[in-house]
Design a protein that fits this description.
By secondary structure, this protein is mostly helical. The chain has one domain (about 10-89): DNA polymerase, domain 1. It contains five helices and no strands. The chain has helices at about 15-25, 30-35, 40-50, 60-70, 80-89. It is globular, with a radius of gyration of 12 Å. The protein starts with 16 loop residues before the first helix and ends with a helix. This is TfoX C-terminal domain protein. It holds the Pfam family TfoX_C. InterPro entries: TfoX-like, TfoX_C.
């Protein structure tokens, strides 16, 4: 289990420079910020900021969840993916 929670976004699994920049634009700058916002909350904030853009759930929602659980986004499990997807509506 990882105990350091205030890592830079790009130090997290699934978060590259592009996603980190997008998160910075909505006020998320660290792992702690992402935890506070939650994967669903961060996805919603990005949808609000970019209403005309399609945000692939695997690229954003699942990546955020995987970043916080230190897993590749495709390894978080179908049950968790469905639960997250249901929360974004």
């Amino acid at each position: 289990m990882i105990t350091t929670r205030n890592r830079n976004l790009t130090d997290l699994k699934n978060i590259g420079k592009k996603i980190a920049c997008r998160l910075n634009e909505i006020g998320i700058f660290s792992e702690d910020d992402l935890r506070r916002a939650s994967p669903v909350g961060a996805h919603r904030m990005l949808k609000e900021r970019y209403p005309d853009e399609i945000l692939p759930v695997c690229y954003y929602l699942y990546s955020f969840e995987g970043a916080l659980t230190d897993e590749h986004w495709d390894k978080i499990g179908e049950k968790k993916k469905q639960k997250l997807k249901a929360q974004i509506g």
